[in-house]
Design goal:
The complex is a heterotetramer, with 2 copies of chain A and 2 copies of chain B. Helices cover 36% and strands 19% of the residues of chain A. Chain B is globular and about 50 Å long. Classes of the chains: A alpha/beta, B alpha/beta. Chains A and C meet through α4, α5, α9 and β14 of A and α4, α5, α9 and β14 of C. The complex binds thiamine diphosphate (2 copies) and magnesium ion (2 copies). One thiamine diphosphate sits at the interface of chains D and C.
């Protein structure tokens, strides 16, 4: 069942569950930060409405910088602001930022310890019809490898807002990952979001497998858990909304009993969230993992639903993976 | 060398361009159905240039898209690919009906163009600022292979805010690359607004001249003037050439012209100020285009 | 003992073992490719001598393009050449290429399937005195996450030459990683290098642990194995010179008997070669791993020896890791 | 406003610059010992400008490096940091003896400057092309905080081949940023050779003018002329300003001047054509510098 302590959305499994995009949470969180702290500034590279930075831009025009289509300059200007007492948010699509400005961020923001938050939008194949050039499917891999940055991937719009605000409250670099389409609201304003901590959103007696899901795909994982329960298979589902710092204690706790893991992310399997968990377990307690995500392939144009299905990231795929991994326990 | 553009040919091209706009609206109508998205403003503005390219300028063979002596048309601002797809369909690269698959799952007409899935598409693009460099590479290969083809690179004004473009401009200037012509869609439009408000490019011509290019300003919606500009460009041998094509985004549809809201939205997706209500936009657009088609037809011939 | 079938350098453990930098192998390999195939071209971003592209540049000036300090343009120009029948090599320091042109490479080379090879130099902390901005310590992570690219990390200058030539012989993108300083010659011209295959350079009876090492650090691993043998601990040491495609069969074979693994790389542990092996084992046969590499930190200025020691990548560190991982089996 | 540069002050600055070059050679001599590497050509060429900055132009306090009203000096071409370190030591940011730790393991004088390890270093740099943007960000923070400090950004010609620089130039032009001055080390040198051979920047001034900057050309090895240029720059209020400092790389040491081989090599590392043999380079360099110091001293005073 849904963890009763986490105050999750009671209507989550309704047909007409409320939906919203995680990027909307970014817009709201950024606006609130702007209201609370005059040192918060925002920069955007010609995608102000699409990334939802426009709420902030309209309210605080003097603290908003329109950078045009220039992601490198955006990152390094933000770095200059970030070493000068400002809390700078930069937003674009994740393929372009941190994609086109990867090294700029590495040197001027991460190594330089500038107070800058990188908001990467249009994550994953669920970006849909724009096709693979616009679907960020390696952004977790290329940011989590940096020392000292934090990486948050909210599961819904409400957590998106919380993650944005949490990022604004620490002084070091954070990478935030948002997606484009509306997805089910999983949490409520009262659900905890704590950087560096993973929560078990689905709990059951004697679980046989643990599913770690990051981002909107958590919804599919929860639906999978519910359906599996009806088939007599109990699982734990964990919201991996902080990928860095990695909650190693949590991971060990949630997997100790099950000894079998499925990771689910709309991202390449190589180097992604599942990879981070594989590293942690190999170092502490090696266990079998089935990885849900892109299997060494680019995607293509299509609706989110078409693509999520074709590339094996939907509820069914997760259920199959759970069954496979349980078998592997031997 | 380009052949002379006769009066008859010009009229034919104008009709083709008008047909292209109609096909484009049809394709975007389908794209909206297929996936709820599609770019309208830029493609409409570039319909005249694409028509001129595919039906007069380019040395190409739709039956043999990989013909090694073909001129290369590199599209850097990949998001305007719908108009490229239309011109390609009109030229015979693929059936016109396939245009209805724009942005549909498993289509060859990807939301941004991808090399390999559709013969005739020379490079993958979408992320801005990269096509000028790619085109230079293609042109250099032509030089190494002692080929006579010309590489045309289409770029946009918005993407000139990307540093990569200026790296490429500097390199082409160093090379004095002369088997290569850039055409920029200078429409003063990008996603967040007008280019001159968002991140001004003016004085634009002076920039290219300072990067050692030959620049030609032209009305990009005037087919005759554009063809003349290409002719002038082909004659320049000591510098790379940029044709600065001043175009009207949304050209041909009164309620779309010069309005940046139409950058990335297909008709009938939303109500838009100054436009017919959602549900009537495609119809109204087609009416306007058909009337314009008649007008061209009746222009003395 | 050194695997007698692989024709390794018999003087490897001598005090005065011959040394050379892997980048020298790049220069030689590129030159040979240029001699064999008139379609090979090379581009460099103002580091021609340092990356050893000068051998090619001097011999084939008309096929060499000096790009100045412009890594994005270099990548995309190469892409244009690569879709036009050329085999294009681009070279710079790896922090800059694939660092400053990451997305350019993703779109115009990898997704576009252009025949381009990315030669990334100055890999790892062993770059030394230039400091962390010039030490590429995330380049494996940010390239191996791309679909379909191959990733080679030669262990010495001779393998560097072979890897370069192998890259030039396939038509798809390859990332090649080279290091700056002179390091011991481990192989001979007769030692096999096969993309996608890992070879066991050190073999022993009843090995208790398997060490995977990538790049020059393989030397430290071999020395560690030899010293451990004297202490009564038998190991297998594998040259992980292809990181992608990953030799899963080989990995399973080499670890089947030992059940305990150490990975060693001059790179962040996060997302690196060890991470790739952790992914593969989690998917097929989970086993304990001790990871040698940068532990979520940037390095600094220093001599290679100082840095390798400080950041725990030398022979001693590898030996300790082997001992730890063997304990974890029990 | 800058105070007038008296004759006495000018002579003092010239002596400081001469001392800086001597300290620099000493630091590089140590760096070679510490780790076998170090940049020589660029730092020597910029010794006069760094001296003018630290001892006349900058409003700063070595005893309080984080003073919030200090002028900011951002070094974009991080590899020339040895001369910054020298000026900082001369100013009292840290003991002159510490210069001998250049590039030594666990030193504060990292091979490329790193913010945080040495108070007074404003930003991390080394990868080229990023400092102009960082400086703009710093200047914007100054505006937001209604501070009067000026942000000076030092860049190099080689790094103007990076697209990032032109993105930044375009942005500063849009902002008409006027609490901000760029000084470029225009020395026609980069690693692979002379800039004008490798990737020409000329006509350079025209480029900046086309990007809406005010440009001032000056002899970067003439302290008086440079200070005058800064004064002129400070007076421009409707545009960002670039001071194009024409410098001689290797300045002050006959066998190093204008030879790009000295870009990244410390003295006495290798034999170099036209230079004294390895082992005598430091000695010879110091002799030349000392002689020049005497000459300045004896210049009427
Ligand atoms: C590197 C990159 N950044 C951002 C985008 C998102 N984007 C797509 S089109 C566009 C506007 C560019 O302006 P322009 O090409 O002039 O647009 P048009 O004239 O067609 O409206 C932007 C920012 C992109 N495709 N690539
Ligand atoms: C992005 C990037 N690419 C390459 C390098 C390697 N590099 C260091 S200095 C340099 C030459 C740049 O020219 P310039 O700054 O004018 O050098 P100088 O005048 O000091 O000789 C290069 C290419 C770098 N530091 N950063
Ligand atoms: Mg435009
Ligand atoms: Mg220079």
């Amino acid at each position: 069942m849904l963890n009763p302590n986490l105050k999750l959305n009671p209507k989550l499994f309704d047909e007409d569950v409320e939906k919203d995009a995680t990027r909307i949470g970014f817009g709201k969180g950024l606006l609130k930060l702007g209201e609370a702290d005059p040192n918060v500034v925002a920069l955007c590279a010609d995608l102000t409405e699409s990334t939802n930075a426009h709420l902030f831009a309209e309210k605080f025009p003097e603290r908003f910088f329109e950078m045009g289509v220039a992601e490198q300059n955006m990152a390094a200007v933000a770095a200059g602001l970030g070493v000068s007492g400002k809390v700078a948010f930069i937003s674009s699509y994740a393929t372009f930022s941190p994609g086109k400005n990867w090294e700029t961020i590495r040197t001027t923001i991460v190594y330089n310890k500038a107070n800058v938050k990188i908001a990467g939008h249009h994550a994953g194949v669920m970006t849909g019809p724009d096709g693979s050039t616009h679907q960020a499917t390696e952004d977790i891999a290329i940011t989590r490898c940096w020392p000292d940055i934090e990486v948050y991937v909210p599961c819904d719009s409400i957590e998106g807002e919380k993650a944005t605000i949490a990022a604004g409250q620490i002084k070091t670099p954070v990478y935030l990952r948002y997606s484009r389409d509306k997805t089910p609201i999983i949490t409520t304003p009262d659900t905890p979001f704590t950087p560096g901590k993973m929560f078990d959103f689905w709990v059951s007696e004697n679980p046989q497998a643990t599913i770690f899901a990051t981002g909107y795909i958590l919804y599919y994982a929860l639906v999978a858990a519910r359906e599996l329960e009806n088939e007599g298979i109990n699982t734990t589902v964990v919201n991996a909304s902080t990928i860095k710092p990695l909650d190693i204690e949590g991971i060990l706790n949630y997997t100790n009993q099950t000894g079998a893991i499925v990771t689910a992310e709309d991202h390449q399997v190589m180097g992604g969230m599942g990879s981070a968990i594989a590293e942690a377990l190999a170092a502490h307690n090696p266990l079998p993992i089935e990885f849900i995500g892109l299997q060494n392939t680019f995607a293509e144009t299509g609706t989110p639903a078409d693509l999520i299905k074709k590339y094996g990231m939907d509820t069914n795929a997760i259920k199959e993976a759970v069954k496979r991994v349980i078998k592997r326990k031997g | 060398m380009l052949t002379e553009l006769s009066k008859e040919k010009l009229q034919e091209l104008k009709l083709k361009a008008n047909e292209a706009r109609q096909l484009l609206i049809g394709a975007l109508d389908a794209a909206r159905e297929n996936s709820g998205a599609g770019h309208t403003g830029g493609p409409l503005g570039m319909a005249d240039i694409f028509t001129a390219m595919y039906f007069h300028v380019l040395n190409h063979n739709p039956q043999d898209p990989d013909w090694e002596d073909r001129d290369r048309l590199i599209l850097s601002n990949g998001h305007i690919c719908p108009i490229r797809y239309v011109s390609m369909a009109q030229s015979g690269y693929f059936p016109v009906e396939e245009l209805k698959t724009l942005r549909k799952f498993e289509t060859r007409l990807q939301g941004h163009p991808h090399r390999g899935v559709l013969p005739g598409v020379e490079t993958t693009s979408g992320p801005l600022g990269e096509g000028l460099s790619q085109g230079i590479g293609v042109a250099l290969a032509g030089k190494l292979d002692k080929k006579n083809f010309i590489t045309y690179v289409l770029t946009s004004d918005g993407e000139h805010q990307e540093g990569n473009i200026w790296e490429a401009a500097m390199f082409a200037g160093k090379l004095k690359l002369n088997n290569f012509i850039q055409v920029i869609d200078y429409n003063n439009m990008q996603i967040d607004g007008n280019v001159e408000d968002i991140m001004p490019l003016e004085p634009f011509r002076a920039k290219y001249e300072a990067f050692n290019w030959h620049a030609i300003d032209v009305d990009g919606n005037d087919i005759k003037a554009f063809v003349d500009a290409v002719k002038e460009a082909q004659a320049v041998k000591d510098k790379p050439v940029i044709i600065i094509a001043h175009t009207v985004p949304g050209k041909g549809i009164s309620f779309m012209e010069n309005n940046y809201k139409w950058h990335g939205m297909p008709p009938d997706l939303k109500d838009v100020e100054g436009a017919p209500p959602k549900g009537e936009q495609v119809k109204k657009a087609m009416e306007e285009l058909k009337a314009e088609g008649e007008r061209i037809m009746n222009q003395e011939s």
